[in-house]
Each structure stands twice: as C-alpha cells, then as structure tokens.
Amino acid sequence: MNILGIDWGEKRIGLAFADSLAIAVPIEPAVQKKLKERLAHIEKQIKERKVEAIAIGYPLNMDGTVGFKAKEVDVFIEKLENRFHLPVTRVDERLTSHLVEQDYKDRKKKIDPKSGAIDSSAACIILQDFLGLSGDSKIS
Q1: Alpha carbon distance 97, 21 (integer Å)
Q2: Distances in Å between the alpha carbon of 95 and those of 6, 110, 135?
Q3: Which residue(s) pair with 58 in the sheet?
Q4: Considering the entire predicted model, what is its pTM?
Q5: What angle do CA 64, 100, 17 make, to 5 degrees?
Q6: Topology given in CATH for the domain delimited by 3-130
Q7: Tens digit of pLDDT per residue, the chain (140 long)?
C-alpha cells in the first residue's frame, strides 16, 4: 500500500512516502504561499505516487489531551478527506519536530527552517510510527 505521511503546519506541510516495502522517506514539502497551492502540491504527490492512505501527525498536548493545534489539524483532515477521498489516520506526533531539529544539530547540519526539510523529516517519523517501526502511536 502506498501511504503519504504529513506533518501539518500553517505555513509548511512536511511530506513523506512509503510503498509496499514499508520504508518511509521524506519527499518534497508543500511550502507554497497559499493553502490552495499547498493542497495542489499534495494532490500532485498523491496522483504521481498512487497514494491509497494518509497518516497525519496529530499534535496532542504533552498530557495526551487534544488542544487547539490538534483541532486545527482536525479542520485540515476534513479538507483532505473531502478533496482526496482517502482514509486518514491520526498519529501521535509529540516531539517529532524537536527530535528532527536535535538530529540536525547533533550532526552539525544547518538547514533553512523555511525550506520544509525539517517538516518532511518529521513527516517521515510520523509515517514510520504509523507503519509500526517506532511503536504503536496511532490515534484513529
């Protein structure tokens, strides 16, 4: 099954992809200025990669409760479901961006935060979690 991983952000949307080999890889993030353009970029990835399902990071509060950021992701999920008619699974994403940023720092690798590379790397972790490579953190 071809799966798209998403790390949602208001300005940048990180993307990752996995096929039947179940290896998640970061792909070109959606960093266009307007949401409409970012959705078009996601649509292109879905069509080109024949995506059958989406795993999206769900930003729970540290205590596991649903906060305002998670509610914003719920609105985005509704847009995805209405536009692409694909199953969308929420995956606990607590600390994924922090882990990625720390990894870049540990490797002394500079990255432009506006490039979306950090976001796509976070999407990769989210997708790996969905695939069960990092434990069971699926929410729905």
Answers
A1: 25
A2: 15, 20, 15
A3: 92
A4: 0.84
A5: 90
A6: Nucleotidyltransferase; domain 5 (3.30.420)
A7: 999 999 999 999 999 999 988 899 999 999 999 999 999 999 999 999 999 999 999 988 888 888 889 999 999 999 999 999 999 999 988 766 666 666 556 666 666 666 667 888 889 989 998 998 444 445 45
CA distance 15 to 3: 10
Given the DSSP bridges, would you call strands 13-18 and 3-7 parallel, antiparallel or unpaired?
A: antiparallel
Residues 6+ apart with CB under 8 A from 92: 57, 58, 60, 129, 137, 138, 139
Cβ atoms of residues 60 and 90 within 8 Å: no
Domain coordinates in residue numbering, the chain: 3-130
